[in-house]
Amino acid sequence: MHKKILALGFAMAMMTISAGAQSGPERPKILAVSHIAVYAANPAVTDHYYRVVLGAEKAPDPENARGVRYMFSEDQWVEVLPLPADAGKNRLDHIAFTTSDADGLRKYLAEKGWHAPAAVKADKSGDHWFEVFDPEGNRVQFVESGARLKSADAPHAISHHIIHVGILIHDRATEDTFYRGLLGFRPYWYGGMHDDKVDWVSQQVPDGHDWLEYMVAGGPGKGIPDSMSEQTLGVLNHFALGEASVETTFKTLQADNRLEGRHDPAPKMGRDGKMQFNMYDPDGTRAELMNFHATEKPCCSAFTAEDPAQ
Asked: Is the pTM here over 0.85, yes or no?
């Protein structure tokens, strides 16, 4: 009997070890949108747009000496990089999310079989970060915020919260294997220009309320379709600034003579029931001003998670 008990205990211990080995490391938290990095053909003109029109605070780019950061808050910004000679129609370099532990997340992805770098990088701001490619080849960074050398003030910013970033994708199921299956992003809302077609799929970061929006182009493959115009691509690859009232912000921009360049004629109701207003930087990247909360019933699907807050 004693031998049977020992054997049973040994078997149970081995099962526990095996289960632990299969489960692997725990995924560190993914908390929010960190930033979006875009290209600029004329940095001086682009500087006026982000600094004066949108009101962001200009700061050095500790990640890339050739770039500039336009800060909307201490932990959220638009990174503007010089336009590469081979960029073609593309104006998006990468999107980025904030994590509680960059190296832990890197190890988690590697353990799960995703191609990840051998180590994280550190910059002069104290941030640690790494980047990977999603299933369709979009570059994605994960940033662990460090001690800032200088806090972002940005008193004239029209918003202090980037609530989502959007990217061109082709296949929702393929992208879901990474963002939802591996990283744990959660469904938030989906919809389209027509009720019977899904053009936009939003899923929140697993440990916060900011979200990633798939801008579904459809069709097989990945990358930028040959038939897609640079202007359409700039609509799809975008970022959104949260507003308590888009209409109030629009009036402020009008009163301050800050409505320059290409933009919508006026705010409009989105298919998700949230008021919105679209503005475009000099290279065509869309900044979508969006209410934090819906004021009308959304089309296509209900919201399945809490809204982000100001």
From this structure: yes
Residue 35: C-alpha distances to residues 57, 77, 129, 142, 190 (Å): 14, 5, 12, 10, 22
Share of the chain above pLDDT 90, in %: 85
Residue 61, domain CATH = 3.10.180.10
The answer to whether 288 touches 239, Cβ cutoff 8 Å, is yes
Give the whole-angstrom CA distance, residue 202 versus residue 222.
Answer: 19
Q: E strand or H helix at 176, and its extent?
A: helix 172-179
Tell me how far apart the alpha carbons of residues 268 and 277 are, in angstroms, rounded to a whole number.
Answer: 6
Contact criterion met (CB below 8 Å) for 236 and 36 = no
Residue 55, domain member (yes or no): yes
Domains in the chain, number: 1
Q: For residue 122, is pLDDT > 70? A: yes
